[in-house]
Amino acid sequence: MSPIPHSRTGRQRLFEPYRMGPLELPNRLVMAPLTRMRADNAQHAPTGLLAEHYAQRAGAGLIVAEATAISPDGFGWAGSPGLWSAEQVAGWRQVTDAVHAAGGRIIAQLWHLGSISHPDLLRGRTPLSASAVNPLQESVTAAGRVPTVVPRAMTRAEIRQTVADYATAARNAHDAGFDGVEILAAYLYLIAQFLNRSTNLRTDEYGGSVENRARLLLEVVESVAEAVGPERTGVKMGPMHETGPFEANDETLPVSEYAVSRLNDYGLSHLLMMGGTRDLTGTPLDALAGDGMFRHFRRLYGGTLIANVDFDVARANALIASGDADLIAFGRPFIANPDLPARLAAGAPLAEIDWETVYGSGARGYSDYPALEAVTQGAS
Ligand SMILES: Cc1cc2nc3c(=O)[nH]c(=O)nc-3n(C[C@H](O)[C@H](O)[C@H](O)COP(=O)(O)O)c2cc1C
C-alpha cells in the first residue's frame, strides 16, 4: 500500500492508529456491519465465500461482521448466519482465519430479531417480543418480503433463556476466533422492542419505567461481558426515527440517554452509533441531526465512540479532531470497494454499488468487486 498522504488542511486523523481495548487498530476506519444474505444454506453457516469477502476488506482498522443470530428463536432474516451450532462456529472460523491472515481484525454482531422475524423463518413458531404488538414492518423470508405478524410476549423464563443465549453466542464467537462481539441493540430488533414504549406494554420488571425497559439490554451486556470480557464487548444503539411503532416519541431520547449512560458502568470496548438516517426535522430527535447525535452522546459516554452514516474523509477527520468520535464506520462504501481505506487515503474514486446484487446470492456483486490496483492494472 502506498504511504498515506497528509491533506493540505491538516492531519488525516482517520488514518491514525487507535487502541481499542486489547486491539491495536492500524487506522480508525471501521467496516460497518452489512447483512448480505450469502449464508443461504440450511445450516445458516458461513462458507468460504464469506471468508473471501471479509478477507478482501481486511484493510479496515476493524470489521464488524454482519448481524448474526444468537439462537434459532433469535433467527429471522433469510440467508443470514447464526452462532449457535458447531457448523456455524466452524464456518466463522474460516472467516476469522482468513481475515487474520490478511492482517485484519473482526468482531461478531449478535442479533435477536424478536418480532421482525416471521413464522416462515421459525419453523412455524410465532416470533417472540416484549409484548404482542405487531411492529408493522416487513420480514425478509426466503420467498421475499412479507408483512410482520403479531408476536408472542416472552415469559420471564424465556427472557432468562435469551440472556443466556447471548452469552453462549458470545462464547461461540470467541471459539470461532472473533476478536470481540457487538450487541445489536439499534434498529427495530428485540432489544429495541423492549426499549420502546410503543412495543413494550409489559407490567413486570421489564416494562413500564425507562429503567425497566432498559433492563433486558443491561442484563444482556452483563452476561456477554462476563462471557468474553467487557473489553471485547461493544454495543450498537442510539435513538432512531423509523416507521410504525418505531416513530420517535418523547421517550425515545430519554431511554437512549439512560441506557447509554449506564453502559459506562461496564468498561466496554465501544459504542457504535448511527447518525440520523431520515430527516429528523420536527421530530423529538430534531437536535440530533448531522453530527448532533455524536456531540450529544459523547457527553454521556466515556468509552470508545464509533460514529456512522454517510461519512466522507473530510467529515471523518473533522469529527475525530473535534473529539466527538474516536472511530468512523463506513457501510455502503465497503460494498463495491474492498480496499476502501487505501482508496480513501489515496483520494481515488470510489466504485458504484450494483444494488441488484446487494441482497443476492453467490459471488457476483459480493466478492468480485476488484481492488483499485487491479482496476488500474486492467486499464493500463
Ligand atoms: C445492505 C446493508 C446491510 C446492513 N446490514 C446491517 C447489519 O447486519 N447490522 C447493522 O447493525 N447494520 C446494518 N446495516 C447498516 C449499516 O451498518 C450502516 O449503519 C449504514 O449502511 C449506514 O452507514 P453508511 O452511510 O456508511 O452506509 C446495513 C446497511 C446496508 C446498506
Report on the architecture of this protein.
Helix content is 31%, strand content 15%. With 380 residues, the chain is an alpha/beta fold. The chain has a single domain (13-379), classed as Alpha-Beta Barrel (TIM Barrel), CATH 3.20.20.70. An 8-stranded parallel beta barrel has the order 3-4-5-10-11-12-13-14, surrounded by 4 helices. It starts with 17 loop residues before the first strand and ends with a helix. The protein binds flavin mononucleotide. Flavin mononucleotide is lined by residues 32-35, 66-67, 109, 184, 186, 236, 274, 308-310, 330-332, 358.
Spell out the key features of this protein.
380 residues; alpha/beta; TIM Barrel; eight-stranded parallel β-barrel; two-stranded antiparallel ribbon; 12 helices; 14 strands; disordered N terminus; binds flavin mononucleotide
Write the topology of this structure:
Elements: E1 18-20, E2 23-25, E3 29-31, H1 48-56, E4 62-69, H2 86-101, E5 106-111, E6 128-129, E7 138-141, E8 144-147, E9 152-153, H3 156-175, E10 181-184, H4 190-195, H5 210-213, H6 215-228, E11 233-236, H7 252-263, E12 270-274, H8 292-298, E13 305-308, H9 313-322, E14 327-330, H10 333-336, H11 340-346, H12 372-379
Helix pairs in contact: 1-2, 3-6
Bound molecules: flavin mononucleotide (FMN).
